[in-house]
Automatic annotation (TrEMBL):
GO terms for molecular function: ATP hydrolysis activity. This is Conjugal transfer protein. Belongs to the GSP E family. Pfam families: T2SSE. Signal peptide: none annotated. Residues 193-366 form the AAA+ ATPase domain. InterPro entries: AAA+_ATPase, P-loop_NTPase, T2SS/T4SS_dom, T4SS_GSP_E_ATPase. It comes from Pseudidiomarina piscicola. SMART domains: AAA.
Length: 395
């Protein structure tokens, strides 16, 4: 029997299977796929083309199963980079770097839960009381995080970090006064000279965006392997392998960690390894890779200064479970990391590079850092001289 309930049940089951077999590419493509699936199902059930009324019913079912409700217009606005649903009646956005409330409201907690289910269902994920938290990637590359009761005490919440359609360039950074021409020239030289670079900053400062920009400077004749928790990099490189970690399923099986991917990547003949973010024990493997023939690798981590970044790396190495003395850990870090780039967010919402430091090594077990560029008087000023090439000049 062809009715709304039957079509809805059929579509949900088919979409879950399709996510394991089809490269659906984008949300628009996914919607088209769903419409075609239902039309074919109706033809098979009744032996003929769908009537106008049935086509309208198909559209309603697709809207119910796959629409994003009141936040749909926000997803189409390129000025909006993040959508934050704190509660069914509280929606904030980040527009051009600034957080602002909106007048958008869901009708109820139930409607918000339905939208969350519509988002995660085509991703092959589930969210319910037994598994009340999901962190995943949408088909267009955007990141989605949803938390429901009992973990979310005030009701379901949803965060979508939209995937920028246009990759950032050094020209963009210069136009927004986020970097100086001398600093841009230096960073390009560092990547091309195969220096290991660590990008640090707080949440939402643009670390991954900057990582993508620097990795884009790698020559085409070198093989890059990228490893991410959730794929955000969008490199257009001829010799590229992109790997993405996999969380455990509902039964607690199937986990593939960043660390496992990193260890496997060493067997794939990489020239450069790019890790989206170091958060734990994989830091040791990353440092060892940098020290053993994979020069010019890049990664990011959360830290508020270059020196704090090195201290955080020490903690991450200790999480790897090896009994290494502190002097050995610091030696490993000091020999692996050559350049640290700090990116920050200004009060006006702009994301700017606020420091570039060179790691010169250890002296009496203390990291020797040489600040080459620092944020002074609302601009990135040259404050030091590169130990290898001397004075630096912009293009």
């Amino acid at each position: 029997m062809i009715n709304k309930a039957a079509l809805t049940q059929f579509l949900k089951a088919q979409i879950q299977r399709a996510t394991l077999q089809e490269d659906l590419g984008s949300l628009n493509k996914l919607r088209t796929y769903a419409e075609q699936l239902l039309q074919a199902h109706v033809r098979q059930q009744q032996g003929g083309q769908a009537t106008a009324a049935q086509l309208q019913l198909i559209n309603e079912v697709v809207d119910d199963c796959m629409g994003f409700g009141p936040i749909s217009p926000l997803l189409g606005d390129d000025r909006i980079s993040e959508i934050m649903v704190n509660h069914f009646n509280s929606v904030f956005i980040e527009r051009e770097g600034q957080l602002e409330p909106t007048s958008i409201r869901f009708k109820s907690e139930e409607e918000l839960l339905q939208v969350i289910e519509r988002i995660v269902l085509p991703l092959g994920r589930r969210i319910d009381s037994a598994q009340p938290m999901v962190d995943a990637r949408l088909p267009d590359g955007s990141r989605v995080n949803a938390v429901i009761a009992p973990l979310a005490l005030r009701g379901a919440c949803l965060t979508i970090r939209k995937f920028a359609r246009k990759a950032l360039t050094f020209t963009d950074l210069l136009e927004h006064k986020a970097i100086s021409s001398a600093a841009a020239s230096y960073l390009k030289q560092m990547v091309q000279a195969r220096k290991n670079v660590l990008i640090v900053g707080g949440t939402g400062t643009g670390k991954t965006t900057l990582l993508n920009l620097l990795a884009s400077e790698v020559p085409e004749n070198q093989r890059i392997i990228t490893i991410e928790g959730a794929a955000e990099l969008k490199l257009q490189h001829a010799n590229l392998i992109a790997l993405e970690a996999r969380p455990a399923n509902a039964e607690g099986r199937g986990l593939v960690s960043i660390r496992e991917l990193l260890i496997n990547a060493l067997r794939m003949r990489p020239d450069r390894i790019v890790v989206g973010e170091c958060r734990g024990a994989e830091a040791l493997d990353m440092l060892q890779a940098m020290n053993t023939g994979h020069e010019g690798s890049l990664t990011t981590l959360h830290a508020n200064s270059p020196r704090e970044a090195l201290q955080r790396l020490e903690v991450m190495v200790m999480l790897a479970g090896f009994d290494m003395p502190m002097h050995a850990i610091r030696q490993q870090i000091a020999s692996a990391i050559q350049v640290i780039v700090q990116i920050s967010r200004c009060s006006d919402g702009r994301r700017v590079i606020t420091a570039i430091s060179e790691v010169l090594g250890l002296e009496s077990l203390t990291y020797q850092l040489s600040p080459l560029f620092e944020w002074q008087n609302q601009a990135l000023e040259k404050t030091g001289v590169c130990s290898e090439w001397g004075d630096l000049h912009g293009d």
